[in-house]
Design a protein that fits this description.
Shape: globular
Strand content: 5-15%
Number of strands: 14
Number of helices: 15
Length: 480
């Protein structure tokens, strides 16, 4: 329940600005909440006609903290007050990037309060923080995502079923990036947030490819149709930027070619997205709207953690076209890279009792716990040894550094990463993020060898045996 919405309050005016975000983070640095090297930038689209980033030139930037608030499991349910308190605490320690989605919620699915629950809570937190003087709207970067249709509603135009047949398919679960659906969802998100979003991302548009794969459509045909649909979606997003419904730009949150897994948990090839092709599609969409050479595609969001490090290391051993990690590629293309799942890694088949679409745990939680799992313990030891070998500065007794601090710091320190989203639905998670933000990040010289050493130790971690002999993945090539 959101009192602001019930009262019919007006939209919160304002948007993120280069000056406002820099001011907010400068104050966080001055009071010791944020290390100066944890102030990063996201490329800022012009407020007038769209313009693509120009190679060799420094674009205007929004300043963002190296850790962002991931609002995946917040809003709805009986823990909403604690979620609200955690977000308010995160804002006070200098976290100024908030990422949500139309279908994020902690409430029961289909309860009527699920769709948009996270956005409503984020909007409430922003309104309260501004009213109490904690922040100004121009210091916050608000991102949301769309694609998932509301449960129980008729299928929107251009929709595909999310769950493949044979894995508990539910034909009431739909995904769409059709321009009509995009336009309606962005406007609804703005109302729920109580402010225009600074960025709107298409949320896993690869679900279309998953549906095509189920129908055994040749990969070339499926990809061509996918990018045709994305071009139409981008045109709709460009129009919403022109109108001011979106303040700064748009992007895609997905599993790109260098990512190990697809959005359905399979080895990533057929269902993957090619980042450079997305930028070309955005440029073509802007050109069709009379904006030659200009577009507002600004953000790529992808998974990156100590286990799934393909976005940094590349995946050339399995997919030659993915030899360059998408963090490097995105930076070269002038995009802001936002990482997600720094503390939740997908295990390869055979390593865990659970996997996508099956019973059991679907993630390794990269955090200290009692008792500590064998794989997590060994992973922590390998990472610490690698960092110390590369001269990584580890404060105090290295063995006592929590795995979650180590994993989060590795993700945010990776080359090309603007910010790493961390789920912070509880105060304890905010405290973890705050502790990491106060410390200097690792250097690229430390991060890449550390992740490479983790890849070389994959057999010891049990990460590769199950995949040896799988087409395209031999001797752990997927990890390197």
């Amino acid at each position: 329940f959101c009192p602001r919405e019930a009262a019919g309050a007006q939209l919160q005016p304002g948007m993120a600005t280069a000056e406002g975000t820099a001011r907010l983070l400068r104050r966080a640095v001055e009071r010791g909440a944020l290390h100066p090297l944890n102030v990063r930038g996201l490329p800022l689209a012009s407020r007038g006609p769209a313009s693509a980033p120009v190679a060799g030139q420094q674009p205007s930037q929004l300043s963002v903290a190296a850790v962002g608030f991931g609002a995946y499991r917040v809003g709805g349910g009986d823990k909403e007050p604690s979620h609200l308190a955690a977000l308010r605490s995160a804002l006070r320690v200098g976290v100024n990037l908030i990422d949500t989605s139309s279908h994020y919620s902690a409430g029961e699915k289909g309860s009527g309060s699920s769709h948009g629950a996270s956005e409503r809570l984020v909007g409430q937190a922003i309104a309260e923080a501004i009213a109490e003087g904690d922040v100004d709207r121009d210091g916050l970067v608000v991102c949301t995502k769309l694609g998932h249709a509301e449960l129980g509603k008729p299928a929107p135009p251009g929709a595909v079923p999310i769950r493949p047949e044979g894995q508990g398919a539910n034909q009431d679960v739909w995904h769409s990036i059709h321009p009509e659906f995009v336009d309606a969802e962005v406007r609804a998100s703005r109302e729920r947030l109580g402010t225009p979003p600074d960025f709107v991302l298409l949320h896993n548009p690869e679900y279309f490819l998953s549906a095509q794969m189920q129908q055994r459509v040749p990969i070339g045909e499926a990809w061509d149709e996918m990018y045709e649909r994305l071009g139409q979606s981008f045109e709709a997003l460009e129009a919403l930027c022109d109108e001011g419904v979106i303040s700064s730009g748009y992007g895609v949150s997905g599993n790109f070619l260098s990512c190990m897994f697809s959005t359905t948990g399979r080895g990533n090839l057929y269902e993957s997205l090619a980042l450079d092709r997305l930028v070309d599609v955005a440029a073509a969409a802007a050109a069709r709207r009379g904006k030659e050479g200009g577009h507002r595609f600004r953000i790529a969001q992808l998974p990156l953690n100590a286990v799934e490090a393909g976005a940094v290391l590349g995946r050339g051993g399995a997919v030659p076209e993915a030899a360059e990690g998408d963090c490097v590629l995105g930076t070269r293309l002038g995009l802001g890279i936002v990482a997600n799942r720094p503390l939740n890694a997908l295990p390869l088949p055979g390593v865990s009792t659970g996997d996508w679409g099956r019973q059991g745990a679907t993630h390794w939680q990269l955090r200290d716990k009692t008792p500590m799992g064998a794989v997590e313990s060994l992973l922590k030891r390998v990472l610490l040894e690698a960092l110390q070998a590369e001269g990584g500065v580890l404060e105090g007794d290295a063995s006592k550094i929590p795995l979650q601090h180590l994993a989060l710091k590795l993700s945010l320190s990776s080359p090309g990463v603007s910010s790493t989203l961390c789920g912070m639905r509880a105060e304890a998670y905010v405290e973890d993020a705050a502790a990491v933000l106060k410390q200097a990040p690792f250097s690229a010289v430390q991060v890449c060898p550390c992740l490479n050493r983790r890849a070389l130790r994959c057999p010891a971690l049990g990460l590769c045996r199950a995949c040896a002999g799988r087409k395209g993945d031999v001797d752990g090539a997927h990890c390197r």
